[in-house]
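Final report, Chapter 2: Outcomes

The project's central promise was a pipeline that accepts a single protein chain and returns its three-dimensional structure in a standardized token representation, suitable for archiving and comparison. That pipeline is now operational. To close this chapter, we reproduce one record exactly as it appears in the project archive, with the input sequence first and the structure output second.
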Amino acid sequence: MKKGKNILIWLSSITGILCFIVYVLIDNKAAADNEIKKDLSPVPYAVSAAYATETEVPGASVFRGHIAAKNIINIFSEGEGKLTSSAILLGKNLSKGQVIGRIDRTIKTAANQINVLGLAKAKTDYETARRNAARFEALLKEDNASYVEVENARLQLSSAEMQLKTYQQQLTISNKEVGQLNIVSPANGIIVEKKSNPGDYISPGTLLGVIAEMDHVLVKVFVPEQLITKIQVGRTVSIRPDVYVNTSLKGKIKTIIPLANEAKAFPVEIEIHNPETTPLMSGMNVSVHFNEDLFSKALTIPRTALLRDVKGNYVYVIDSRKNPLRKAVVPGRDIGTTVEIKEGLKKGDLVISSGQGNIEPGKVLKSYTLN
């Protein structure tokens, strides 16, 4: 009897403990469910927003180009002989007509002196022959000279005249050859290639060096066919060199070459004065701004509103229920602190310009501030 009573007490204790455990578990589950509900409740956040607006913007079209020398000029020798001196040095500035080299003058000067003396004698011989011919012509009229003597005098005069002309021609040539012993710069510019050294034997046509004309330079750029009909030779454009930040230079369209490349773009050359304060060098990259005096309307939004990921460019648009909706867009030009939108938005669309990082499931847009 006593043993049965103990078993009953033991079973009652176990039952009580189990009931307590079940109660605790149920209570903990209810508390956990409440915490989950709290975590899943919407979290409010705020953003900044702006309307997509139409703005009057310059109608400029910008293309990339590069600087090139206005002219590349070869320096050729006109004379023949040993190069005794030369100022043809890489990077040296030259002026047109400046003497930049000399050829040995010994042989040419001696030949020229011989021609000078020969011409002087030819003039004397000619004058003597002319007087003799005139004298015999007069004697013939008085029957004091024969026809043979007159004819001989005429032949001597003709020979002397031919000799005189020969020496005159030879002296002209030798004077020119002596003048060609001085090598002069054919243009203003900078030596960019050196092809000769003192001591070299040179002849007419020998390449001595290369000059780049840099007082004025060319900007070479390719313009697509959509714009080529809107530009004209002589029109002013803006040139902005990459190396000189915030520097804008003016140039004039010099040439439009009517031969497109495979990309349907036409070569255009623009001439620009090379300023001393911001010297331009061949090969420098520049931006060329066409039609800056024209204006057009563009749909713009703050640049901070435009986002990009692997799917492309997009913005968040706030709908009538204050829900942020992702919209794909096609951006255009950067215009100050704004960006042009070519496709994807319309005038009056409200886009989020800051705070996009708060947009995620489980959060709700509480308010926005207009920029």
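Archive annotation: Residues 316 and 326 are 5 Å apart (CA to CA).
This record, like all others produced under the grant, will remain available to the consortium after the project formally closes.
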